[in-house]
Amino acid sequence: MGDEQAAWAAGPGAAEQARSLLAVAWSCMVTADGGREEFVGAHAVADDGRVLLHVPEGSALLTAAICAPRGEPAAVLEFADVAPVPVRGRIRARLWMAGWFAPADEHLVFHPTRVVLRRPSGAVVVDLDEFAAARPDPLAGAEAGLLTHLADAHPDAVERLTRLVEPESLHAATRVQPLAVDRHGLTLRIERARAHGDVRLTFHAPADDVAELTERVHALLAQAAAAACPRTLQRQRADGDR
User: Fold this and answer.
1) Coil, helix or strand at residue 156
2) What gap in Å lies between CA 134 and CA 66, rounded to an integer?
3) For the chain, how are helix, strand and coil distributed in percent, rounded to 5?
4) What order do you get walking across the sheet with 175-182 strand by strand?
């Protein structure tokens, strides 16, 4: 049991996080043949992680894909993971995929040859087999709505959760917001006047759907109710707040 818990408590692995980011990203930046173009709401993802990109007829990218030699890294795709709750530094991660396009029916199929995930802790090259086999976090599609609801409708609950944070992490804090949630835990963004940091609260067991997530959050709130109350957050406006 201990080994199983250790495997998930720290959070999603790089392949799972990359697939989650890819599943919910709304825009795709494509660099190919020296050109750079953004496609909004134009991509889908196959089960094995290939990107299906819909481009207009006559697109320079379509021409480049037809002319590119098969198997060469003809393009680079970039996706950004943007926090749904307004916080300082809203880009939580970036995903780069190098590879090549192949025309298929009414879209282009992108075959990745290299996948790189950049997180606050640094960049990591994702193994292609692990990337193809991974599945998005089951809460990825609901995360934006869950976090905005928590921040807007339950700010008191967010502040209660700070009782589970080490006091030194709350030193000079001006605001705490929910930054991310996945089946493994909830991450809080702690903002100070000129800096910020993140603290992760892990669940006692993975949550595979919204109902289980609700139970996990209630369990954290119960722990917080039994914890000592930390120093009240400073009520001063952080730089950049409006």
Assistant:
1) helix
2) 29
3) 30, 35, 35
4) 175-182, 185-191, 196-202
Global pTM reads: 0.86
Rounded distance, CA 28 to CA 42, Å?
A: 8
Distance CA 229, CA 212 (A): 27
Torsion sign across C-alpha atoms 170, 175, 179, 183: positive
Report residue 95 as tokens.
């995903």
Give every CB contact of residue 48 below 8 A, 6+ residues apart in sequence.
Answer: 132
Residues of the chain with pLDDT under 50: 1-9, 234-242
- Kind and range of the H or E run holding 111: strand 107-119
Which residue bears the tokens 């199983």?
A: 4
Q: What values do phi and psi take at 203, rounded to 5?
A: -80, 160
Q: What is the number of other CB atoms lying within 10 angstroms of the CB of residue 173?
A: 21
pLDDT at 34: 67
C-alpha span between 205 and 195 (Å, rounded): 32
